[in-house]
From TrEMBL:
TM segment ranges: 20-37
InterPro entries, A to Z: UCP029505
Keywords noted in UniProt: Membrane, Transmembrane, Transmembrane helix
Name of the protein in question: FIG139991: Putative thiamine pyrophosphate-requiring enzyme
Domain of life: Bacteria
Length: 179
């Protein structure tokens, strides 16, 4: 008998693995392509190429100044070590950038300037404020904008929560306002 006739053939399971390795590597190459569009959407949002935020909320008149407001990310308030929070963006009116010292935002009317709320940070054309949403917040509550001028003047204006963030109002309705 010859030596080649006595060799056993390779088991077929090894060839099956080698065959599907090619398809598996192709799949691992294609899967990240499915996530490129959401990645580019987030990139445009954070760079400001998509506007102030995901949902423009209109203009709010605070004293003599108009501020363009937007909800940064549409959705329920996010959980944070400080509780539930929601991020809003703001752009100051043309020509009033040098008149306004600071702008604050909070749920409910502030008692004083010391309790004015979350301060907007960033440039005059795109500033951010992350507002805590207290557990006792009701769906018909208002956000209050407080603008402080360089001349010492202080102006306040209410902004209905339903106009600012309808998704937050829907979330509050499902949660039920806690007393």
């Amino acid at each position: 008998m010859s030596k080649t006739a006595t060799l056993n053939p390779a088991p077929p399971t090894g060839s099956l693995w080698r065959r599907y390795r090619f398809y598996l590597s192709g799949l691992l190459f294609v899967l990240p392509l499915l996530y490129l569009q959401p990645y580019f959407d987030q990139l445009a949002l954070f760079r400001g190429a998509a506007g102030l935020g995901q949902r423009p909320a209109g203009e709010v008149q605070v004293g003599t100044w108009k501020m363009q407001m937007a909800e940064f990310e549409v959705g329920a308030p996010k959980s944070d070590p400080a509780g539930r929070v929601k991020t809003f963006t703001m752009a100051l009116c043309q020509g009033c950038e040098n008149e306004i010292r600071a702008v604050y935002l909070r749920v409910g009317k502030p008692r004083s300037l010391r309790a004015a709320g979350a301060i907007f940070f960033g440039g005059p054309h795109r500033a951010f404020a992350t507002v805590p949403i207290p557990a006792r917040t009701k769906p018909d509550d208002e956000l209050w904008l407080t603008a402080e001028g360089w001349d010492g003047s202080m102006h306040q204006a209410p902004w209905p929560l339903s106009a600012a963030s309808p998704t937050t109002v829907a979330w509050l309705n499902t949660q039920g306002a806690k007393q």
